[in-house]
Amino acid sequence: MKPLRLVLQAFGPYAACQELDFADLGGQDFFLIHGPTGAGKTSLLDGLSYALYGETSGGMREAKDMRSHFADPTLETRVRFEFQLGTHIYRVDRCPEQMVPKQRGGGQKKQSYIANLWELEAGEATPLATEKPTAVDARVIELMGFKASQFRQVVLLPQGRFQEFMLAGSAERQAILQVLFQTERYARIAQALADEEKCLKETMRTTLAESQQLLEQVGVDSVEELPGLIREAERRGTLLKGEQEKVIQAAAAAAAALQEGLRASVLVKELQAAEAEREELASRAQLMEVRRTEQERALRAEFILPPARRLQEAQDRTRDLGEEEGRLAEVAGAMTRIFVDAEEKLAQADGQEIRREELRRSIARLKELEPKLVALEESRKEVRASALERGRLEDDVSEHRRRTELAGQELSRLQVQVQELRTETDQSEAREHLLYLVKKQRGQRDELERYWMQAKDAKEALEDAEGSLWAAKDERGTAHEAQQRILARRQEAQAASLARHLESGAPCPVCGSTEHPLPARSAADLPDEESIQAARDRDDLAEVSLARAQENATQRLIAYEGLRARTDGLLDALGDLAQQPAERFAAQEAERRTDLERSRTSATRLPSVELDVSAAENKKTATNQVLDASLLRLEELRTRETEAKAKVRFLEESLLSELRAPGALSTRREQAERELAGSERELQEARTARDAAQAQAQGSGARMEAHRERMHDGQAETSRCEIELDEAIAAARFRDRSDFELARRTPEEQATMVSELESFTAALQSAEDRLTRAQEQALGILTPDLLSLKTSVEAAQTRLSRAGEELGQVQGELASFQRVKRTLEAKDREIALLDRRYRVLGKLTRAAKGEEGSRISFERYVQGAILDEVLVSASERLRKMSKQRYALRRALGAGDLRRAGGLDLEVTDTHTGRPRAVSTLSGGEGFLASLALALGLSDVVQRNSGGIRLDTVFIDEGFGSLDQEALDLALRTLEELKQGGRLVGLISHLEEVKARIPARLEVIPGPGGSRAAFKVG
Amino acid sequence: MRFLHTSDWHLGKTLCNANLLEDQAHALEQVIAMIKDAKPKAFVIAGDIYDRAVPPKEAVALLDEFLGRVVGELKVPVLMIAGNHDSPERLGFAADFLKPQGLHVVGLLEDEPEPVVIGDAAFHLMPYADPATARFALGDEGIRTHHDILTAQLSRAWGRHPQAKRFIAVAHAFVAGGLSSESELGLAVGGSGEVDAKLFAPADYAALGHLHSPQDAGFAHVRYAGSLLKYSASEATHLKAITLVELPAKGKAHTEPMPFAPRRDLRKLRGAFEDLLREATGNREDYLFVELTDPGPVLDAMARLRRVYPNILGIQTGLERSSPDFEPLRSDPRNLDPESLFQTFIKESTGENLSEEELIVFREVAGKALLNRSAE
Lengths: 1017, 376
Description:
A: alpha+beta, Rossmann fold, B: alpha/beta, 10 helices, 22% strand
């Protein structure tokens, strides 16, 4: 899978639309995703993983939580990823469930989770799965070849979870190997063997059952009885065959006798038939004579035919002539009538001459008026044209007026804008100064705050110290008093004791007086030296404490005073502002800053706006000019129009009202001309008609005369023909015409009679011949008895067929016994073969399913071999990266009898010589081992053709757990991959890694989200 | 003109978690002795002074002390350029101020660099830069490879070379014809990192850095001084030295290596575990890469060997190539047909081979099963 383009919108830290085109790597296949912590590096891989599988790269961040907090609420969260698998390019698009603003009204609504998948080819996108995320997921898994969890172990090593594949249990690892290397076909082979074994068992059972059935069919219990039955059947067959021969011979003899009898009866019948025929013919001879006479008379009548015909023709001709005469008479009458009518019409036409003269005069007058009418029309046209143009021009004028107004407005607006900007710009210096002030004050306020706090603390301390001072003073007072008291007591006691020894008259040791009016008395006794000393000590101590407390209090006071002084100073400086809370300062500062910005912006914009103003002025002037020009033209046009209207009025007055309408004059003239022509034409036609009718009447009379003569000739002819005919009839020996008519026959009738006579003669002759022949043949033959002959033949046939049946039955029995014997022998052989095969399959199946031997199934064995291959490749790299210390191999625990075992991993350590579990590797070592393993897997998959492609590897962090040397080795190992044509992407925040890899994808965090861009070289 | 040429110090480097700073300091002491002995007019370090862009503080202190003694006390001018491991900005700190004192450092690539003239020679200092930086600094969009960069740098250098002086180039690059070792970071950024040796042919001497083995690159006067110490297993056979260069007023340069005696050498050891444990050959304190010839794994090898050789860096066993526990299939299992796979599987699982008959049956059933799938 090679990534082509990734687009993240409002996803993770990418607030806007972040597009990454992997072509920007410029063919580099080793690149680093670099950026500070939290910038969004892993989010890129999350995006990629989410686009494909709907899950994030570590599987830990919820996909729903990926919406960017920085994003604009109108921008929806969406991820789009275009990638290449082999020669196919695909695009997948996902929008997670999220709240989007409603289109109408306020508030938000929930947009549900949608996903789409397309295949891209030559710019065309063909959808493969639409809308439903589950369909897209299934399709992606199908195309990629593995699921998200497997993706995370093999293609994308996520942060903190790269060790999954290495630490996975055998079952999990088996699943991945199965997917990557398609080993399930070996499991299928094992299953096919088991199925075949079962199938064979079934077949064997069926075959045995069939054998049993066959034996039952022929009614034996076992195959041994069959030979005896066969021999018996053969013996019976031979016997029956002998009998059959005899019967055949008898049947043949009976058939021959029957044939003889049939032949004799045929001859006898022939003789009888010939005799009958001749009798019949003789009876018809009489009739034939009559026919002959008839024929002779017809022949005679033939000669008289021509004259008869001639008579008929003459009669017909006469009739025709008569008819024609009648017709001719009619025609003559009609002609006369026509002539009379024509004469009348001619007289009428002559009478119209007066009207014709009138019309001629009118026409001439109208022709004179034509030219004037033309002129009028022209003038009217000119008026119309003028009006039209004036209308157009008025429209133009109003348009130009509008434009001039707009230009004026624009100019005013721009001038106002310029004014505003100038005002703003002028203020910029002042604003700068204000900003500076506010900043200073804010500083002071903060300081004041601090001092206040400190002063409060100092005051408390001072009060503490003063309290202590008072206490010390008290103590001192008390101690001093106590000391005084105790000293006094001592004195008293001493005095008392002395007093006790006082005698009157003896001087007092104390005052020397001899009188002792008041001898000291004391209730107390002498305190001992210890107490005195104690009191003294206490006093001293109290003094010392007091001095210290005094000092302390003084110091605190000084401190406090000092702080007070400072705060006073600041308060002076700030004045009233001291009361303001600190946030206000910050707000003010921001305001002032904004103001300053505004001023500066205005300054920049000012020149361009001034330019706009002069442009507007120019425009206004120009539009004004245009307006003036159009107004002028309008005036001219108005004048022209008025002139044309006057001309029209003048012309109209010089024409009659009814002729003012265009075309009225010419219509009138045409009407008159038409009437005249018509009248003249009528006259001419009447004259012609009358002449023609006259000629016709004359012709018709002449024709009648000629016809009468012809009639006369015709009648004479007819009489002549009658006479001729009578003569001919007498010559032919007929009595009269009717006799002649009777004898006539058509030629067809004559021919029929002739042939009839001839055929009768022939038939008679042939009958004579037949009779003669039959008599010869039937000489001396008797009539046979056919019935009895037939009966004996039938009996012989019956006997024959019965014999055949019996023989056939016996032979059938024999054949079936023999067949059964053969079949049973074949089945026995078959069973033997099946049994052998069944035993072989049993062995193979048990081995392939892992029920025997080393107790590993075929599939698991192959997977183990593949895993070894992978580990060889992984160990090579791991050795290099761990300075020859570590290698990976399969844990082949002896006695691992469970079929699910065999794919566990362990690490060999050259330093200790003992293998270790992979979970005992340190963090950094574990990372190197996982990396080597992932690369080893991808190596072995690469060697496969047409399978799953692992040509991209992403590694998310993990380098931080390596020391300098290990990092060196790891990076070197990854660099070597460049030759393999694989794309390797690393995420790391280490500067060291950044220095080594030139092709980078920099992720830069900012206040409004992160940005990412490729930087190569 | 006599001067010393060295490069690739990699101060502060750790090798397999062992800090080499002490050994580097020891070597630098020897260098100072050599300087006192040979009295050169200049001391040239051709790049990779530090191992990392931000070196450890002890390394900085070490360099500080060294430069103080050489430039301050012995008054020998030192000329340094940044290599691909150094950070140009950090290395070039206060370069302008230090110049008058006799310390000439060029960290960042400059468009118009001034050569350093000492005696009758002009040294042209050309620091390492990647193509993107070079494009920007030299204002030339056509620069794509390191060859392009050096071509540009050399042409500018020739442009400013004072007449009648000998031309000495100081550069950090992978010149074609040189042997590389494991510890050099690859320079291949956007294409081959190699530079044609002919570029340096017209110079009187080219003091190169980057490759860790002392060697000539295509010409006798185009030379790598080699690294200060052995920095990887593949360098165990190198003889590390500084190059003393004598360039007479006319005629060819003459070079002579001045070898180091390191306090702790870096060696490769090979042998059976018990033997190695019993007798230690050479200095036990040396940095060692050990290859064990024992046929099976050895328990706690590293810990026990470390008791004898405290600075052991790594162990390698010959085992990884063929373990008796499993025989991996030598080719892609999917390219083997299921039949051969099954035969191997049966052999492993039950210990017997498949008979001819069994093979035929399997072929038939498996063939059908696989066809059904491909028909789906």
